[in-house]
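Take a record.
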Amino acid sequence: MLDGAMIMSFHSIKSPTIFSSKVNNTHYRTRFNPSTAIQTSRVLAQSHEGGKLPESKKLPRSQTLKPLLSQSNTVGIIGGVSTFSTLVFLEKLVWLSSRNGEESIPFVVCSDPTISRQIPLCGSFPPVNGKSSQILLNCGTLVENLRHKRVFLEQSGAGCIVMPCHMSHAWLFEVSKGCSVPFLNMGDCVARELKEAKLKRIVAGSNVRIGVLSSNASQLAGFYEEKLQNQGFEVVLPDKATVEHVIVPAIEALNRKDKEGATNLLRIAIQVLLVRAVNCVILASDEFHSLLPRDDPLYKKCIDPMDALVRFTIKWAQSNEKKVLKHTSKELS
């Protein structure tokens, strides 16, 4: 799906993968610029050690790299804990934005597989309101790593930043703080789509109920709870018994490569929430991607936040492109 012109960085074991692409569905060409690639790797070579570059490694102002892409609607993508999830997001982004014969929107990706090794070092996950310094005590290296990638994407010409990873959203507040461009997140995208859907409440006298399923329910529930409650929804989470006897075993089944067992347990978890009169269930976990077939009746009751993020990202890019074209046409007239 990712056919088109591509510039890929020089890649070593210790440096993250970075590539930029402007894709169209009628022409295939691969270009590699060793000079640009080596310079890019120099900038990011130390990111696995916390995202901070020693002064000796920083490029002087006179050697500041030019943006990889100059289009104002370029999307900067911070690769998640799961490389697979990043690829899923990219495939959906390219396919949905080019399915009508149009060019795909331009994007820059920075993916670092070492992030997954930093997750277990964190003693706990932070609250989403950013009021606690616990994250800085336990996950400072990880946060600085993600921040560094965000800054790199901004300097690469990104007009907005996305982070297609549920786990990384636990540090959204810290990572997005000070960002010079819009930072789109899955919580806002899902909440907006649900608000626009104008759902009718199932139980009289209560707000519309939305269920949330996550492999890290206690850590990430607050993220979606805040976003959904701001839009007037009531959030319903799995009870302790469901977490212990259904969700945890489902993740364990996935770790054993038992997809069928994990899928059956996921069905049970969704049904438990539906019995509690929720209108739909948010599958807020990278592990739950692609378990249910698209034509499954239960899947139709679910929302994949990754899909919502893709749709909103495309809307942003296309809207931004139209603004530029309108401004250009005025200057020419």
Q: What stands out?
A: Residues 5-184 form a domain with the Rossmann fold fold (CATH 3.40.50.1860). The first helix runs from residue 34 to 44. The chain has two domains: 5-184, 188-304. DSSP finds eleven helices and ten strands in the chain.
